[in-house]
């Protein structure tokens, strides 16, 4: 017969399995890396970066990807001069959103001493031109032609990358394009029109683009301030908490 005490213990066991962080155990403590993590020492920042590369390459779940982000971040925060730029690029490769990816790429550019970033994230000029033309077709009510232009250039991914700059985002844009008939123009407010025109201008701009333009067209919002003076805040880590013990980062040994 199961008593109330037994029931409580069973519930705690289930809770521990499902939500280890609820009982003070880090949910992001991949045990296969524990030995390597515990060997890290803040006086050797490069070790954090190299392990971050290994974890990123072998990651099979979000917890391991987050661990790689933390390793890159700590490496950059611990050794600004040698590792900060590479750490930003490492975090960009693991970004969970297009905006975060562009923020980290922009940070890498600033840490590398330039006001420019590589053009359009490596977008092929033919795809950039296709999206620009498609937006023009959309504005004059030729929605089907707009969609066909994007498909012909295999540029659908750009609708996701610049989702915030396109009226209705990718889903809304494609839906409205399918309904536009007979040259009926879409109804656009001034803000939406300005965003679209800015995107078109940026897509046609010679590369590399100014950093401010690149961030603006990716976020679809006021420019995001990137403060590279505080790398801990930029990378969302605390360099004072850089020792790995018992499945979590700690202040010291």
Which stretches are low in confidence, meaning pLDDT under 50 for 5 or more residues running? 1-29, 114-121
Counted up, domains total 2
Distance separating the two termini? 46 Å
Shape: elongated
Residues in β-strands, percent = under 5%
For the biggest sheet, the summary is: 2 strands, antiparallel
What structural category characterises the helix and strand content? mainly alpha
Mean pLDDT metric: 79
- In total, how many beta strands? 4
Q: Major sheet: order of its strands?
A: 1-2
Q: What's the helical proportion of residues? A: 55-70%
Rg is 23 Å
Q: Helix tally?
A: 13
Order of helices and strands: HHHHHHEHHHHHEHHEE
Description:
The chain has helices at residues 4-18, 34-38, 45-58, 62-78, 80-93, 98-111, 125-139, 143-152, 156-161, 169-179, 190-204, 211-219, 231-235, and strands at 116-117, 209-210, 243-245, 248-250. With 253 residues, the protein is mainly alpha-helical. The protein has a two-stranded antiparallel sheet. A two-stranded antiparallel ribbon has the order 3-4. Mean pLDDT is 79; it is low at 1-29 and 114-121.
Short summary of the structure?
The protein is mainly alpha-helical. The protein folds into 2 domains: 111 residues; 87 residues, no CATH class. The chain starts with a helix and ends with a strand.
Tag the structure with descriptive keywords.
59% helix, two-stranded antiparallel sheet, 13 helices, two-stranded antiparallel ribbon, 253 residues, 2 domains, mainly alpha, single chain, disordered N terminus
